[in-house]
Amino acid sequence: MTAPAPAPTSTRELVLDDSWAYGAGVLHGGWLLETIASVALEATGHPHPLAVSAHYVAAPRLGAASVEVEPLREGRTVGSLRARLAQDGRPKVEVLLSAGTLPAAGTAPFLIDAAPPSLPSPQDCLLHEMPSGLPRNGILENLEIRLDPATASWTRGSFGGSAEVAGWIRSSSGRVVDPLFLLTVADALPPVTFDLGIGGWVPTVELTVLLRCQPVDGWLRVVQRARSVHGGWLDEECEVWDSAGQLVAQARQLAGYREPSA
């Protein structure tokens, strides 16, 4: 039995509104990844993203955009697709996506060498919110993020010197947790640079998210760490655990930062 032929290349027109924007109209990279992936999945018979990798070529602006989806191969267990978010004919985000079927929620893994982060209860963690007088932040309007105080010294005006941030995340609107939502969550914590005393924008250059299991609904435990912060570039590794204690997503990204002045 041969695998079905991939669908033809298609283009979807859409509008990027400011619901997930922050600062001077900067659009959240995780939400952009979810938006592009949701369009790409319409071109395959497989229901879930398995691995999604994005290169952020240029910062998209608010307004009209298009997503072009090119199915590369439609296999029996994996569909491979390329997607491009463009504005005015210029590429903004390039995505490669592998689609398939994730294990059912609550399925026990055959092997796992990891454990969920140990966090205080959400009620004992710090609600991440914008200080008064600063521009709005669409991420914090759409997500309830409660930070582990041990990794958020910067919120109290000091710096712990740890390249790690952890906390609880859930939708502010009550959205049920699904695999696509995990693409947004995998890029939702504040940058690890904050507790190192490095402020400012940390733009993502490349982001890869691996989906491991369909999530159980509820609070998500998320931890993000950097192994190297060097010369204006840093890596961030992220783990997302569902309310049943199952590892449901892993992410790794390369991002830029501005070196603090001496």
TrEMBL record:
Pfam family, one: 4HBT_3
Domain of life: Bacteria
Gene3D superfamilies: Acyl-CoA thioesterase, double hotdog domain
Coiled coil region boundaries: none
Acyl-CoA thioesterase-like N-terminal HotDog domain segment(s): 17-97
Residue ranges annotated for the Acyl-CoA thioesterase-like C-terminal domain, each copy included: 122-255
Protein name: TesB-like acyl-CoA thioesterase 3
Source organism of the structure: uncultured Frankineae bacterium
Lineage: Bacteria, Bacillati, Actinomycetota, Actinomycetes, Frankiales
